[in-house]
């Protein structure tokens, strides 16, 4: 069955087609959810919420542009909506911190470790770090998506990088001292 036919069947509330669509895209969308969520269980919840939204709004997809891009946007927006509802961005009056670059040596740090420390960031820092660094959104776009001001986006990105830099430096120091 073609993707277009699968989408059409989903528009007609065909549960078998919905299951096929889920199988086809759940891995990619789960990776997005995992990136934005605090942990694995929350990512699973976010994935389910995203698919509920996708199936509810699939009628709005008009076969123009990439379907995968469309469902990825819905997934990101579903996760972000959860955090907007939790008011994780209420603390806006923060002292600015100088933005730092985080040096990552792939030989010393695993992808799993990097994902783990990104997930451990406070919500407002993790979300902005992922949107800006990993997904390439501008601060203007992030501010609009999260209903915050551009300065808050920049400040939270700087704080996220600062925390990650310190965490990575501490990890490297610990690794060096254990190997002596």
TrEMBL record:
Signal peptide from the UniProt entry: none
Keyword S-adenosyl-L-methionine listed: no
Start and end residues of each RNA polymerase sigma-70 region domain: 21-87
Record keywords, A-Z: Sigma factor, Transcription, Transcription regulation
Domain RNA polymerase sigma factor 70 region 4 type, residue spans: 112-161
GO molecular function, one term: DNA binding
One GO-annotated biological process of the protein: DNA-templated transcription initiation
One Pfam assignment: Sigma70_r4_2
Family statement: Belongs to the sigma-70 factor family. ECF subfamily.
Official protein name in the record: RNA polymerase sigma factor
Organism: Algibacter amylolyticus
């Amino acid at each position: 069955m073609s993707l277009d036919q699968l989408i059409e069947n989903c528009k007609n509330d065909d549960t078998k087609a919905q299951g096929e669509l889920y199988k086809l895209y759940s891995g990619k969308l789960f990776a997005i959810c995992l990136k934005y969520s605090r942990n694995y269980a929350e990512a699973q919840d976010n994935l389910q919420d995203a698919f509920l939204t996708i199936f509810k709004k699939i009628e709005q997809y008009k076969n123009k542009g990439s379907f995968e891009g469309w469902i990825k946007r819905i997934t990101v927006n579903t996760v972000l909506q959860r955090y907007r509802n939790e008011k994780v961005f209420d603390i806006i009056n923060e002292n600015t911190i100088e933005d730092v670059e985080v040096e990552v040596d792939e030989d010393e740090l695993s992808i799993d470790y990097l994902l783990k420390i990104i997930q451990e960031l406070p919500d407002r820092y993790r979300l902005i770090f992922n949107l800006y660094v990993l997904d390439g959104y501008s601060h203007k776009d992030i501010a609009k998506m999260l209903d915050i001001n551009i300065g808050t986006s920049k400040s939270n990105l700087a704080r996220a990088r600062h925390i990650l830099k310190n965490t990575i430096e501490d990890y490297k120091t610990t690794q060096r001292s254990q190997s002596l």
